[in-house]
Structure formats: C-alpha cells, structure tokens
Amino acid sequence: MRYLVRKGKYYVILYLTERHSMKVIKKLKEKLEIKRYDFKPEIADGPIENIENAVFYCVDGIGDIMVASPIIRAILEKCTGSAYFICSPTSRLYIELLDKQYSNVVIVPVGKKKALTESSIAHTAANIRKQGKIDVIVNGLGRVSPRFAQLACLLKPRAVLSAMESAKRTSRPKMVHKSVHYANLLYRRGVSIVDCWGIVAQMIGCDYNRSLLFPVADITPERTPYIAVSLLGASWGPISEKNALHICQAISRHYNNDICLIVSPGIEPMCLSIASTLENVFVSPIPPTLELSGAYIKQAQALVAVCSAPVHIAGAFDTPVLVIRGVERSAWRPVVGCAMEYITNDKNINGIDNDKFEACFAEFINKVGL
C-alpha cells in the first residue's frame, strides 16, 4: 500500500504493507496530515471549455472503451491542441483507430510486458509537459489508480476526469481506499476531480446514456443463439492459442449451441485457427470494428472474457459474464454485469487448470439459466 504525501516542498512515497493494522495506518495518516477525500464531484470551473491539450490514460487493455466512449470523442473534438494517449501495447491497437480519424491524436506508447513504474510515469509526464500546458487528463480505468494519480500530480491539469462511478458499485472498497489519498492530494492542489461519467458528459456537452456506451451496429449475427468469447488479454497480450482452444472445448461440452469468438486487433489469426478446428465456433466480422463487435456482444446469451474490456461493454447490455483472470489481477474484476469469475493458478492468464475451469463454466451455465 503506497501513500503519496507532502513533507515541506518534497513529495514522499510511504510504503505500508498489508500487515499494518488499520490502527497503525490511522495514526500515520494523522501524523502526516492525510485526510480522506470521498470523491464527491466538485466542479470548480463549471463546464469544461477551451481545451487546448488533453491526456488520456488508457493502459491495461482498455483501449476499446476509450475509443467507443462518446465522451472521449467529444473531448477530442473540443481539443484545439494535442490529445496525448498514454497506452500499453494492447490498448494501442485500438487507439490507432482513433489516430486515423482525428488529426490531433498523439500516441505515447509505454511499457512492454511490465506494468508502468513510477520512474517511467515521471519520464512520460516530463516529455508531455515540454509540449505545453495540459488542461484535462482523462482516466478510463474505472478508478483513480496510484499510477494515474501520480501522472495527474505531475501534469498539473485543470481537471481530472475519472470513471469512479463504476468502481463504487463493486465490492472493492480496498481499491477505492488506496486511491482516495492520491485524489485528496490533487484536490488540495486545486484540481477539479470529476468522478462520474454522467457529470463528465454534462461538463463536456455530450449526451451520455449507459445503454448507449458503445455504438452498436444494427445487424443480426448469422448463427444464433451463441455464447461470445473474448480472448484479448490485458497489457501483457492475448491468451495462448492452446489455452483458448481448451476454453472453447470446455464450453462446447456444457453448452449445446454455437460459440462466437470476438475478434480484436492482432488476434485474428488465432480466432480463425480455432474456428477452423471446432465446427461450432465462428468469428465476429473481420476486420474488427467497435460497432460490429459491440453488436455481437450485445446479442450473445453470455460472455466469457479473458481479462478484457468487453466485460465493461457487456455490462451496458446486462449480458452475464464469466471472467477469467490471473490470481494477482484483482484490478480486472469487472465493474458491471458479472455473474462469476475464474481465477487462474498463475499471476497471468495462461495458468488455467482445464478441469477447474470446466467445473466453473458448468456452474456459470446453471447460474445464468443456460
């Protein structure tokens, strides 16, 4: 557990282990004058206008959410300068779609297989600040994570826009608790923190409706009914083809209808290979578009997602979800629409025990009535 606190003119990162009791933490907080900020939306400057430069934080494979959101597009259209997208390899595949549509998009790639570090965040922030003052920084993770908060502190924007609304609906108070201290630091520095997408939409002048989060194409899939399967992982890349095949085979043994693999940029060959191996598997349209992928997720009876952002999309349509995630990837618990989750034996998504997953899927099928 890390706390970013100010002592004099320096910022100090205080490391606390989970072994510290809440009593000890409380005393430390009082000593260091850290006050909890409960993320009540504060709109100090009213509607956000005159946006010159903006930064979008979209790591951990959430690029499709950022691309799909009408709020993001509204900010891009208001932005008269540059829109910097800090993205990991998986998210970059999606952000490149925006790059083709908007001339002011600047892709800032970070990380390879490892998560962002404090030093890489500092380096990235320094490079962006050289280009000019930042007006708005947007977080797509559904929570104010420590890395994002550190970035926001370094960039000193006029406003921080974050989707904390979704995190409040989870059973993850610890995750929110870890972030409130960073948010407090921003708040005390005069930065407006807006934590609800609905309020962000009002400030940005954008019509927003959760059911229309994703621009869905009006089409009927060629094979129905079916379960959708998303294989795109997080920032470390997709699941292996061997494990993906085992997942589809396990689903086939307990579900008598078809399986639709939701194609994402970069995993088309793997999806086509699995579809050619199993008769009951077909793929969503290639090349993938957000409108078509959203339509196939919306019309599925359920979604099996490997640690990926389609979980959030499914939540907009109340599609039941079974999430596969690594044992240390608690941040990837879905925010809405989840029925169950399967946790692998490893810290990444490829440590799947086939028998345990099959038992978990059978339980999931019974739970959602399929």
TrEMBL record:
Gene Ontology molecular function terms on file: transferase activity
Keyword Transferase: yes
Entry keyword set: Transferase
The organism's place on the tree of life at top rank: Bacteria
This protein's name: ADP-heptose:LPS heptosyltransferase
Species of origin: Zymobacter palmae
